[in-house]
Amino acid sequence: MEITKKILICGSGIAGPTCAYWLHKYGYSTVIVERAKALRDGGQNVDIKGAGQHVIEMMALSEQIEAKNTQECGQKYLDAAGKVIAVLPKGALGTLTNEFEILRGDFAQVLFESTKDHCEYRFGRFVTALEEKEDGISVTFDNGETEDFELVICAEGMNSSTRDMVMAAHTSFRYLGAYMAFFKIPRREEDDRWAYSVNGVGGTFITLRPGNEEETTVLITFLRRDHAITGDTPTMRKALLRRALEGRGSIADRINADLDTVDDFYFGPMSQVRASAWSKGRFVLLGDAAFCPTPFTGKGTALALVAAYVLAGEISRNADHSQAFAAYERLVRPYVEAAQKQLTPRRIRMMHPKSGAGIGLTHLAQRLVASQAVQRQFRPSAEKRAREVADDFVFVDYA
Ligand SMILES: Cc1cc2nc3c(=O)[nH]c(=O)nc-3n(C[C@H](O)[C@H](O)[C@H](O)COP(=O)(O)OP(=O)(O)OC[C@H]3O[C@@H](n4cnc5c(N)ncnc54)[C@H](O)[C@@H]3O)c2cc1C
Q1: Smallest Cα–Cα separation from 56: which of 121, 123, 6, 106?
Q2: Residues having CB within 6 Å of any atom of ligand 1
Q3: Which of 73, 231, 281, 308 is the 20 to 30 A CA-CA neighbour of 90?
Q4: What is the pLDDT of residues 124-139, one digit of tens each?
Q5: What top-level class would CATH report for the domain 74-98+176-270+344-389?
């Protein structure tokens, strides 16, 4: 087999191309197979925070990312009638808005542009079988072709099918007790560069955020005990979402009115991926496929960036792939688990008050956090924020 330094990466989301970028630096050739027919440019505002910022700085991508910044000014909490009850500008304690705010699709595009000249992308392709051999791994694709690689990196996101072929027994999902939907609606004149969040009765939480010139992004989460829907179809999902929006105030009414025109519609249970092991033989998991923390942590993208950097670095400095994978997991797992632990079903319930009284208390807490007294006392200084970024993860220099 002539496969030394030839690596297959499954999934051209965030983690896959980042890993390809670093592997190329260390002299590897990479092939990325992506199930979708073209680069998936969907998705909403993602934060690149903490150590993730350091990875994009090392990749010299800060400028390209800054050029696509959604320019979100901060977050405002509203009541059901649309009245502002709390204002948390960018940089404030408790705000949603971070330094690097970018639409996920724009970020995926930046990563694609920075890797496409030295990584072979194959769109509309996926793995149907894998066979591990003594010196490599033989992979069969959906077109029937078979090819040999030294290693396979699976970065297919939360619902990875290749992971399930190889490591189903090692993977479980932790349902957090809520469903989430994200999609885009047409931008209106009144939409400015602020994020707007509103709690609705019954445990519905809605956030609108600035997208591009034509669109506003929507994230809706709502409590639901069951994590499966009987007869799950796109029509049923929208019907379920409509029910969660009914009588939840003016923003919910606006979304409901636009819902029929939405095609790129994500809807599913808010679940974390927990894998008891991240590799088996020459096969290794990366990004959401290994450790999806859910969008509510705001850390999925940062974790994917850090993990991709470490995995590529450990592959490059260990002649034995099992040692490389063990070092990768040892370095990244504690970082990932700390992010996952931030969210528990209890915390999710607290963020989604159901009764009018519960919402009243939540409004009080939102006002308190936004108050000058609290902000003056606890708002992190620019130096403290920089220190937090530096302390978030201790990087090994693989160069
Ligand atoms: C379309 C889309 C929209 C998203 N929107 C948001 C958002 O709004 N907010 C948020 O916080 N997070 C969002 N995410 C998740 C976010 O991108 C991840 O949490 C994080 O960035 C980690 O990235 P990842 O590369 O591990 O996974 P992902 O970004 O999910 O990328 C996985 C890639 O693998 C591909 N893939 C799946 N199965 C196969 C297969 N069998 N073979 C080959 N390729 C396969 C997928 O099409 C996708 O391109 C979105 C993901 C996608 C795919």
Answers
A1: 106
A2: 10-16, 33-36, 40, 42-44, 46, 104, 126, 155-157, 160-162, 182, 287-288, 295, 300-301, 304
A3: 308
A4: 999 999 999 989 999 9
A5: alpha beta
